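Researcher: I'd like a candidate sequence for this fold, 419 residues long. If you have to choose between options at a position, lean toward the conservative one.
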């Protein structure tokens, strides 16, 4: 059965690749059917009889070119239909009873209906049916209501209907295939978009973690180097802070990179993402690095959604890192988290003289990353120098986070500040 099925498939594929050979075989089959049918006499009363007559030479001369013309039915269906219909009319006019030359016209009419549109099928089909039926009724010896005349009408009408049905099915299958291909392309594009968004999110997390902790390590290492000879106890304390900051950086890096692991990996992190619940730990770390920080107002109840909570924490973390890097010596910072209706407002201000513009340490992406985080949740972020000195970062986050439209230009695209 497997061998037979594979053989049938090979023949089918070969015929599909060689349509002219298929049409030649069809033309031969139609010619044989017409010659065999011409031996039948319609008869009267008792119905048709077979073998009581033989086809005339003139009828054979009409059947042969009518069948041969079907070889080119795909290339020029209208011309083949006109040619075969003309041969059929000649046979209906001159022979009584006529030979079944109409069979070639039926195949040609089916081809026209299957390869053109429905309006063309209606127009050409009605014209062909009317001409052939009228020729059979007017020039035949039998009465106009004879069954042979209505047989011509029925066969040509069925050819139109069958061809139109095949064309409709092909169009339906093509539409389904196109929708499936479009859906596949859409899934691929959506998957690529999600991968790009996830890569951007992980890049922001890595930037926030590395920038914050490395800035603290840099400050404490500088303090240790400065007081190593005169105040070794203070140098040891600074080195302890370096060790603690580096350990925290490694832990957060491990947690962030662990998100790339497959689900079910036993080494994947299980601790929750940082949020305002650990804001005190963040502030203490910054204070130990030498930056006085005041938490002026903190409102954490009811708790914020996870995405908003993480974004608020990262905004504060990056803003304090920028203050420590750019505000200059003697700077102080103030953090405020306030719930206002359906939004949460995060404000970080400092009184430093560095301006917080990020020009001191080269080009970073801190403010840009903050804006991207906030904009992705449907919020807004403003950052700029304060009147009288210092810098201010102000973010407004909706309590019900929503994802911004992909590709829509937002506030993130309007900034080029460096962290």
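Model: Candidate sequence:
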């Amino acid at each position: 059965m497997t061998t037979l099925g594979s053989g049938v498939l090979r023949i089918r594929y070969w015929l599909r690749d060689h349509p002219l050979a298929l049409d030649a075989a069809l033309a031969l089959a139609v010619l044989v059917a017409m010659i065999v049918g011409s031996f039948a006499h319609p008869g009267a009363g008792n119905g048709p009889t077979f073998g009581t007559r033989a086809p005339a030479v003139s009828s054979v001369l009409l059947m042969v070119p009518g069948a041969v013309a079907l070889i080119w039915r795909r290339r020029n269906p209208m011309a083949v239909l006109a040619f075969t219909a003309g041969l059929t009319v000649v046979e209906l006019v001159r022979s009584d009873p006529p030979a079944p030359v109409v069979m070639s016209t039926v195949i040609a009419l089916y081809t026209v209906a299957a390869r053109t549109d429905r309006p063309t099928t209606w127009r050409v089909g009605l014209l062909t049916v009317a001409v052939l039926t009228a020729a059979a009724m007017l020039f035949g010896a039998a009465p106009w209501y004879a069954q042979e005349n209505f047989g011509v009408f029925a066969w040509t009408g069925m050819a139109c209907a069958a061809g139109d049905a095949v064309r409709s099915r092909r169009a339906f299958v093509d539409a389904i295939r196109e929708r499936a291909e479009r859906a596949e392309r859409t899934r691929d594009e959506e998957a690529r978009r999600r991968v790009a968004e996830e890569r951007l999110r992980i890049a922001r997390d890595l930037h926030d973690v590395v920038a914050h902790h490395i800035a603290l390590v840099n400050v404490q290492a500088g303090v240790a180097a400065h007081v190593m000879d005169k105040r070794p106890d203070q140098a040891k304390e600074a080195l302890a802070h370096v060790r603690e900051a580096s350990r925290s950086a490694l832990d957060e890096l491990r947690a962030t990179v662990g998100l790339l692991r497959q689900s079910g990996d036993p080494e994947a992190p299980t601790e929750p993402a940082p949020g305002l619940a650990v804001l005190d730990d963040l502030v203490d770390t910054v204070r130990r690095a030498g930056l006085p920080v005041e938490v002026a107002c903190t409102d954490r109840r009811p708790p914020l959604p996870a995405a908003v909570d993480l974004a608020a924490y990262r905004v504060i973390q990056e803003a304090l890192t920028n203050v420590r890097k750019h505000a200059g010596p003697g700077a102080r910072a103030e953090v405020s988290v306030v719930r206002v209706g359906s939004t949460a407002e995060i404000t970080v201000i400092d009184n430093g003289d560095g301006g917080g513009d990020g020009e001191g340490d080269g080009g970073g992406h801190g403010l840009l990353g903050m804006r991207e985080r906030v904009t992705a949740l449907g919020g807004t972020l403003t950052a700029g120098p304060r009147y009288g000195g210092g810098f201010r970062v102000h973010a407004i986050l909706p309590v019900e986070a929503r994802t911004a439209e992909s590709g829509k230009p937002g506030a993130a695209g309007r900034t080029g500040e460096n962290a």
